[in-house]
Amino acid sequence: MKWNSLNRTFVALLLLVTATGPAWAQMEEVVVTASRAYEGPPNVSIVKRADHLITEVTVTCDTRDPDKRRQEMRQTLRDMIAEAKCSQTISLGLGESVLGALKESNLDEIITSDGRVDTSRANVVIKTTISADDSFDSATARIKDFIAKTPKAGRAEIVRGARWDLTIIGPEQYHDALVARIAAQSKKTAELFGPGYGVSIDGMERSVSWVQTGPLDLALYISYSLHVAPFGSHEAAP
After folding, report:
1. pLDDT at 216 over 90
2. What is the per-residue pLDDT for 6?
3. Distance CA 224, CA 45 (A)
4. Could you list the residue range(s) of the whole structural domain that residue 190 is in?
5. Does residue 164 share a domain with residue 82?
6. Residue 197 belongs to some domain of the structure
């Protein structure tokens, strides 16, 4: 996508902001793989808190009788669902890159053989909503407390994995705001070169990307390229 002058660039980008359809209407919750090596945000970005901190847990049970083992697994999963419903900050999910909800109707689908004799397992994602006042320690403590106080039936256990990840809901909802910021920044950049210069921009059709900038924070951005050139040139014709 290219615009051949400063004014055309700015106007076209603003039109794109108002015309873009609700491509993010389904508002999927996307998992952001956590990293302790935080990168700085790109030049034009929106910095926001992640929506949830998550970790995957494994519910296991090694009761020898298969029917009783399945009952204990289902009861422990039901107790997790009930405990989460009593909380204002904890919820449960399923999935890897995009999260769905854990419901009682899909318990039988997630209970599988553990690969060991007389042992079953089910993988569940525990989420906690991140507030403006949260720290990494306070958010992780809520999940650890939830695991500790959830009743475990029979020989069932809830084992937490080592990873903590973040999620963002409907990242494409920020696309229009990012385009507007890129338009404003591009206009400002071209003005620094004087009235004889314009800009062209590539990449506005790309999806929103993100990078983790802190324990609970993300920078959302669109990967684009900006070219500044005199009017009449190949890059910025009048």
Report:
1. yes
2. 37
3. 12
4. 6-27+170-230
5. yes
6. yes
- Calculate what percentage of the chain has a pLDDT beyond 90: 58
Strand stretches in the chain, DSSP E: 29-32, 46-49, 52-61, 90-94, 98-101, 112-113, 120-129, 157-160, 165-169, 197-202, 209-212, 217-221, 225-230
Taking residues 119-146, what's their average pLDDT? 96
Residues 200 and 158 in one domain: no
Q: Which amino acid would we find at residue 56?
A: E
* Beta-ladder partners of 112: 121
pTM as predicted: 0.79
In this structure, are 62 and 160 located in the same domain? Answer: yes
The 10 Å Cβ neighbour count of residue 88 is 6
Give the up-direction half-sphere exposure of residue 201: CA atoms within 13 A in the CB hemisphere: 26
The pLDDT tens digits of the residues spanning 222-237 come to 999 888 888 766 555 4
| Pairwise CA distance, residues 183 & 177, whole Å | 10
